[in-house]
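We emphasize that the prediction below concerns an isolated chain of 183 residues; any contacts that depend on oligomerization or on bound cofactors are therefore not represented. The input was used exactly as deposited, without trimming of termini.
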Amino acid sequence: DPQESCEQVHFQVPVLLHEMPQLTLAAVNGACAGAGFGWACGCDIRVACETAMFNTAFLNVALAGDMGLPWSLPRLVGAAKARELSFFTQKFDAREAHRIGLVARVFSDNRFSDEVEELVQQFLNRSPTALSVMKAHYNAAESMPMSDYVDLETERHQKIASGKHAAEAFKAFVEKRKPEFDD
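Result of the prediction step, given as a token string:
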């Protein structure tokens, strides 16, 4: 059934956001509820405008949660807070989202687009290799014993430290300029 197949693909979006090598940023400018909430939680970083509102909302429509929310939300805000948000389904604002660690930054509504653009530019000015390896580090650390993780981290560190991006970054630092990464 094509409809069922399409729905199954939508359920994989938070997995893609979480596991893809590129850094993912959810910029919440308005309501963030249900599936959209799950997608935002699948991203590496979330930011919001002052008037953004959040709600798990699933129980309000007789659903038990989807889009990976029961997996991602406890990792972001802790198990007890995640259950509270899911079972009580109360709306909460961007300041509360920041207070509980769901969003990294809250920007004024009139500066939101500019602030998000500045963040994106910061990430674009970083080594794409270092960003993707850092993301891979965090993803690996979620499921590995520390000693195994540190072995993996050391191996990856040695590889990227001897690469062209690290060489360019060090050279740019010495020359007091921004590094230029060609990929």
